[in-house]
Specification:
Helices cover about 35% and strands about 40% of the residues. By secondary structure, the protein is an alpha+beta fold. It has a domain of about 140 residues: Porin (Beta Barrel). Strands 1-2-3-4-5-6-7-8 form an eight-stranded antiparallel barrel. The N terminus is likely disordered.
Length: about 220
């Protein structure tokens, strides 16, 4: 009866609340769909190159073997990278002021990797990185990144945009078990030194569950 009375006395409030929940649910589903498409993109790039390598090597070498060879090629012939982080900006719209006071945004860390510039003039990288996360715990990550490179005229500078796919380990996620993640990646700088960033989208209707911009630097030598 109390619920019925509420519906009769305040129909606008009930409808407004229901509409808000439905809209929030649609937004979350759209974001998840975008991330699924993002997950396919770097794997598709790697698979296309793997197929090309497989065609050259002969029918006995399958796509998986060619992909492994491609990764081995980055490890063997790529230039060494040093990663230094960094800063993690938590969205002021997603996180409450009280929560922001407790979060760590000085995401100091270090990492190593290797990068090769492929035949198309784009960068493929392998990386491993450890940083201090938002709760001041160690966060480990390792994976593969693909960036399309766009030279900025004759300045010697270039911009990059792409995706990274790998594993992340956090103390407060999945009981510390590493989990797969695909995130956008962008960069600006020279071929040897770049300021880089990635973005963790808000994937929940609850506050404090995403919208983090992570900035770091990469030096290739």
């Amino acid at each position: 009866m109390r619920i019925d009375n509420l519906s009769v006395c305040h129909p606008y409030k009930v409808v407004k609340k229901s509409t808000g929940v439905v809209m929030a649910s649609h937004i979350v589903r759209c974001k998840k769909a975008l991330l699924l498409m993002a997950f396919a993109a770097p794997l598709s790039c790697l698979a296309q190159q793997a197929d090309a390598a497989g065609d050259q090597a002969g029918p006995e070498q399958n796509a998986l073997g060619a992909a492994i060879d491609r990764v081995s090629g980055i490890a063997d012939r790529g230039n060494w990278d040093l990663y230094l982080s960094g800063y993690a900006h938590h969205s002021r719209d997603t996180y409450s002021h009280k929560r922001l006071q407790k979060l760590n945004e000085k995401a100091w860390g270090v990492g190593v990797g290797k990068t090769i510039r492929n035949e198309q003039g784009n960068d493929e990288s392998l990386y491993a990185l450890v940083i201090r996360d938002s709760n001041r715990n160690h966060q480990w990550s390792a994976g593969y990144a693909y960036q399309w490179i766009f030279p900025l005229g004759s300045t010697g500078l270039e911009a990059g945009a792409g995706l990274s796919a790998g594993l992340i380990q956090r103390k407060d996620w999945f009981d510390g078990v590493p989990f797969p993640a695909v995130l956008p990646m962008f960069s600006l700088g020279s071929r040897n030194f770049k300021l880089m960033g990635t973005y963790v989208p808000h994937m929940s209707t609850r506050k404090g569950k995403g919208d983090v911009l992570f900035l770091f630097a990469k030096y290739t030598f």
